[in-house]
Amino acid sequence: HAVGAWPSLLGFPIPDSGIVQASDGLHALPAIAQADWSIWLIGCVVAWGLLPRLIAGLLCLAVARRRLRRLTIDPGLPGWLELRERLMPRHRPAGIDAPAPTPDSVNARAAPRAGPGTGPMALLGMELAPDTPWPPPGTPSDVRDLGVCDSRSDRRRVVQDIQPPPERLLVVYDARQTPDRGTRAWLAELRQICPHTDALLLNRPAREAMWREAFDAQGIALVPSLADWARRDTP
Asked: Are 89 and 83 in contact (CB under 8 A)?
């Protein structure tokens, strides 16, 4: 009766006392008694086996959905650091804004249009490391220092500062960097303003071959040192 109380609430009847007393294994039970026992056992399986699991599963699902809505991820945890760039990228590729210029177009832009410079010799640094001494040691006093150019605003300043164009211009680059299209276009612009433009590489021989190719395409001579450039005569 204790075991069948909960199934009886669901409509599964409990066998009466006579059937229970007769079920001693010594007497043959009629078909109706066997049916009563079968219904009672099915009721126990449903009431004590299936329904508690179904109720517990629904309760777990409700709790899980509630906690998932309140779940937050701390991106500072070590396990998420290697996934941060994939899930929350700081930089998005913008694609190619313009096709790469052909060698003919680059050489055409590099053709100087200005006449010989009349201003004093000038020295310009391009995107140098912060620990690079500037101006370089041994710079002659008669050489004008145009500073270090790191941004577009610096380039506009340099274009204004080299008017009138210097007699000779030396552009100093760091050979550890890679010459890109912006570098080639800037060299071509300098050549248009100052026809006699030379280049000096620091931290050689890193990527020196790539820089030589860029300078040769613009018709710019690569000097071995600042002192050698200062001793040369203007052609």
From this structure: no
Q: H/E/C letters for each residue in 146-202?
A: EEEECCHHHHHHHHHHCCCCECCEEEEEECCCCCCHHHHHHHHHHHHHCCCEEEEEE
d(CA 119, CA 143): 10
Q: Name the maximum alpha-carbon separation found in the chain.
A: 130
pTM of the model: 0.53
User: What letter represents residue 230's amino acid?
Assistant: A
> 172 has which bridge partners?
125, 200
Token reading at 53: 């699991």
| Distant-in-sequence, close-in-space partners of 122: CB < 8 Å, separation ≥ 6 | 143, 144, 145, 146, 162, 166, 168, 169, 170, 194
SS3 222: strand
Instruction: Tell me the C-alpha distance between 167 and 234, whole Å.
Output: 7
- Please name which of 158, 126, 122, 165 lies closest in space to residue 140, comparing C-alpha atoms: 122
Query: pLDDT tens digits for 27-78?
Result: 677 787 788 888 888 988 998 999 999 999 999 999 999 999 988 877 777 8
Do 173 and 126 form a contact (C-beta atoms < 8 A)? yes
Distance of CA 107 to the CA centre of its chain: 35
At 99-156, the pLDDT tens digits run 655 554 544 444 445 555 667 899 999 989 888 899 898 888 889 999 999 888 989 9
